């Protein structure tokens, strides 16, 4: 392949082109941390793009995002051939990973209960970016209609073989709407046209639709440490800070803003929801809302490493069953 001239991205959260700083990665800072990459193929594909492996930090909203738009041909090479599928498949059998998914499903049911749902056979759910279908298997309890969507052919073929119902085109999704719940589990980080996808999901959700967004949690303090580290030529603080695969690095603040700009209203966060493990909080929508307000206020303090932010939101202009 000869080098394709890359176009610059605008900030996908606020649309600004002005930046506070940029984090420039050398190729080896990426591949030294990513053991699952096919090294020869990665070097062959990306050596000529070494000067383009950059994160911008938006001057207006502080979102960290990949500076350039990667052409589909390059991303296909990454997701189909450079990343080793066998290694990725092995992760789904990890008990800790399964526990995380079970906990998340528990939280989703709790939020649905707060929204007035009473029965599992009232639920039509879409796992957007479902990969191997491991979350689908956790959610697939009696009555629930659970569907997946993904673009990775190897993963969806295997998920289908294991009994998952998977849509593989946007038209398929539109023909099968609406859904009561849409889950984005570690998806938004990978998407270049974030607003396009959020608008699609808005269209796919029904009138009481719940959107659950899980992304990696890297708040400004952690990003600053990473900036200093890679500038000194050291490795990034985590392999997740990689402008090729993870083109948007959200903080709690920027994720909320991006959802709001696409007409999703914040209901609660994973942190707030965990307080409902306390029996007297469990059935009180008012207390949950109060704790959510507190979490909004304190969200700048906690810096994450290998943590997730979970945000539950609904379509705006909707009445919530209190
Ligand atoms: Zn911005």
Question: Can you characterise this structure?
Answer:
This protein has 14 helices and eleven strands. With 322 residues, the protein is an alpha/beta fold. The protein has a domain of 191 residues: Rossmann fold. The strands form two sheets. A seven-stranded mixed sheet has the order 6-5-4-7-8-11-10, sandwiched between helices. Strands 1-2-3-9 form a four-stranded antiparallel sheet, covered by helices on one side. The longest helix has 20 residues. The termini are far apart.
Strand content: 15-25%
What structural class do the secondary elements suggest?
alpha/beta
For the record, give the distance between the C-alpha atoms at the N and C termini, rounded to a whole number. Answer: 57 Å
The CATH architecture of the domain at 94-216 and 248-315 would be 3-Layer(aba) Sandwich
- The name of the CATH topology of the domain at 94-216 and 248-315 is Rossmann fold
The main β sheet shows up as: 7 strands, mixed
Number of helical stretches of at least 4 residues: 14
Name the CATH homologous superfamily of the domain at 94-216 and 248-315: Vaccinia Virus protein VP39
Strand order of the largest sheet: 6-5-4-7-8-11-10
Helical residue percent? 25-40%
């Amino acid at each position: 392949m000869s080098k394709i001239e890359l176009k610059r991205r605008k900030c996908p959260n606020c649309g600004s082109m002005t930046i506070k700083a940029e984090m420039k990665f050398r190729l080896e800072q990426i591949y030294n941390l990513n053991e699952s990459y096919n090294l020869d193929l990665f070097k062959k594909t990306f050596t000529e793009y070494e000067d383009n492996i950059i994160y911008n930090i938006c001057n207006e909203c502080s979102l960290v995002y990949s500076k350039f738009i990667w052409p589909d041909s390059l991303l296909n090479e990454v997701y189909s051939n450079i990343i080793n599928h066998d290694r990725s498949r092995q992760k789904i059998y990890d008990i800790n990973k399964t526990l995380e998914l079970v906990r998340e499903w528990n939280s989703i049911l709790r939020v649905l209960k707060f929204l007035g749902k009473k029965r599992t056979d009232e639920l039509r759910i879409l796992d957007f970016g479902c990969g191997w279908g491991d979350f689908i298997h956790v959610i697939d309890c009696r009555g629930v209609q659970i569907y997946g969507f993904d673009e990775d052919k190897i993963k969806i073929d295997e998920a289908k073989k294991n009994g998952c119902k998977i849509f593989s085109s946007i038209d398929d999704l539109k023909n099968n709407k609406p859904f009561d719940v849409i889950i984005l589990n570690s998806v938004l980080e990978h998407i270049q046209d974030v607003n396009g996808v959020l608008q699609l999901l808005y269209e796919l959700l029904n009138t009481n639709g719940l959107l659950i967004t899980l992304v990696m949690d890297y708040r400004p303090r952690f990003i600053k440490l990473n900036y200093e580290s890679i500038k000194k030529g050291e490795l990034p603080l985590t392999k997740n800070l990689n402008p090729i695969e993870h083109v948007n690095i959200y903080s709690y603040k920027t994720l909320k803003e991006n959802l709001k700009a696409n007409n999703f209203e914040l209901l609660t966060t994973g942190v707030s929801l965990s307080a409902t493990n306390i029996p007297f909080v469990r059935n009180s929508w008012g207390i949950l809302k109060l704790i959510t307000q507190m979490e909004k206020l304190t969200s700048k303090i906690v810096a994450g490493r290998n943590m997730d932010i979970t945000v539950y939101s609904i379509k705006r202009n909707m009445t919530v069953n209190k």
